[in-house]
Design brief:
This protein is of the alpha+beta class. Strands 1-2-3 form a three-stranded antiparallel beta sheet, with no helix packed on it. It has one helix at about 40-85, and strands at about 1-10, 25-30, 35-40. A hairpin with a 4-residue loop joins strand 2 and strand 3. It starts with a strand and ends with a helix.
Length: about 90
């Protein structure tokens, strides 16, 4: 079985999220012979949102660190070239 989709969206797409229109998480699992779709509980949905938020924050931090490292290396190379040209 594999997870084919996870959708978190307002219960009614035409209305803003609020007490009358809460978020709903729907997960779809598929195998060779069948597909099943179910609505996650509020608690399970909140855990998924927290997991995603944590993962996004970790990935963003890593990408920024990689960018800063790359820029620092470029700046270091430029400084070496300038020092070597004197």
């Amino acid at each position: 079985m594999k997870l084919t989709s996870l959708t978190i969206s307002p219960q009614n797409s035409w209305s803003s999220v609020g007490p009358e229109n809460p978020l709903k998480a729907v997960v779809k699992l598929s195998s060779e012979k069948s597909t099943i779709e179910c609505v996650l509980s509020e608690d399970a949905m909140q855990r998924m949102l927290s997991l995603c938020a944590d993962e996004i924050a970790k990935q963003a931090e890593q990408r920024v660190a990689e960018f800063v490292s790359a820029v620092s290396a470029i700046e270091g190379d430029k400084a070496a070239v300038l020092i070597g040209s004197e």
